[in-house]
Design brief:
The protein is α+β, with helices and mostly antiparallel strands. It is built from five helices and two strands. Helix content is 59%, strand content 15%.
Length: 109
């Protein structure tokens, strides 16, 4: 099992810093490349650019909770929530009848 985790390409967890404007203020966000990839996917589903998505998210969080003590950690958690939601969506998707029939006839062993 550890091989799966240990074998991750180091490029996937190298930090990447991006400049962004949040509420009119220029700031930098430093995340591992893997998280940027997930944020790109989330933003695309929302028909937004990554900076627009992050800015909208930041504004909504400020309205709901006030200042965020660690917004970068919040972004990482958003990515994990998105992955969990995607996994739940996949589990809830019905298997097409032809595939279910084929899988029933697979002999294991």
């Amino acid at each position: 099992m550890c091989h799966l985790f240990a074998s991750q390409n180091p490029d996937s967890y190298v930090y990447e810093t991006r400049s962004i404007r949040l509420n009119g203020q220029s700031t930098s966000i430093r995340l591992e490349k893997m998280f940027w990839t997930i944020l790109e996917q989330i933003a695309a589903r929302e028909n937004l650019s990554v900076p627009s998505f992050i800015s909208a998210l930041h504004s909504e969080v400020l309205l709901m909770w006030g200042p965020v003590p660690n917004f970068t950690s919040h972004l990482r958690c958003i990515c994990l929530v998105a992955l969990q939601q995607h996994q739940s969506d996949l589990a809830a998707t019905p298997v097409p009848a032809h595939r279910a029939e084929r899988e029933r006839h697979v002999v294991v062993g």
